Amino acid sequence: MFASLDPARVDRLKAAYSVRNLDRDAPLTLVHQGDDQPKHGDLVLAEVTKLGYHTLLELTDGRKAKLYVGDEILVAYGARYAPDHFEAELPDDLGACDLVAAGGVLGKVRSRNAAVSAPTTVRPLGLVGDQSGRVLNVSDLSLGAPPLLALRKPPTFIVVGTSMNSGKTTTVASLVHGLSRSGLRVGAAKVTGTAAGGDPWLFRDSGAIAALDFTDAGMSTTFRIPLERLVSSSLLLHGHLMARGVDAIVLEIADGLLQPETAQLLDRPEIRRITDGVLFAAADSSGALYGVQRLRAANHPVLAVSGLLTASPLAVREAQAGLDVPVYGPDDLQSPALATELLRRAAAEAVVEVEVGEVMA
């Protein structure tokens, strides 16, 4: 059962970042499916019923819009993994649920950090469909396959960390800036996480000629998404950056090494093949030692440590005493000379890996 959505009503909606690739000028419908469980990424029209932790919604253009009870918002369903905020799952039905991310994700909160208040709650009014009543999903808004160009794979850095808010995005932005200042065309992407525009926009501000995230690959969040899809979406984003003719690529994998999707994605051979060097972001010195040891045990080419710990000279000295890789702060990574050195080291790691592979073969 479905009904046409009045274009004037669509214009009044507060449409979130998670659905920014939707053409709102196209005819849309409101679809009612009874008690069916929504799917990850399904677009939904919902009414705000009670304000909680999220009082702002990040719109498609990045503006943070104040929310009011009674507002109608256009968002997407999804799960969320955020130890600093909410742990949320996909709802079992189209009943009342929670706004679990400012970028526009609806879920059912399972647990929350004690430092945050209860979530903003909403009442779904129906799923959003196309003119024929087919429910639209963020996957329908994905980029297509990248052009098949005979391009050499540019050097690719992976940034991973101990947890959310460990300094991964700052590390990516700083490295992008340093590489850009050295005269290179740089592409960047966040391949996992929860829909939010701040990170890709920061990458652009830092000098990236192209910046993408997993929403461009058709996902509102990546928690609870099958691993095969995460691999294919990561390669899709990497391929689109390659197609832009960039000289270097920096990819961020969200959350920490203990997050299941993060650990599994890192270890996939498809991801290993595109990785020339890994930078590890840590919040403290013990996390830095743990992360590097774990990555090294899995034969990942760790080039350096960065992250929040670099705000403390003492923490840097603690970490450096137990590490055989350098610790760099944001200012260091923004240096063209250091960026060039990291490129050289990444190339050296790649040569060693090829030689080892040839011997084993």
From TrEMBL:
Q: Which domain of life is it from?
A: Bacteria
Record-linked InterPro entries: P-loop_NTPase
| Name of the protein | DUF1611 domain-containing protein
Instruction: Give the classification, highest ranks.
Output: Bacteria, Bacillati, Actinomycetota, Actinomycetes, Pseudonocardiales
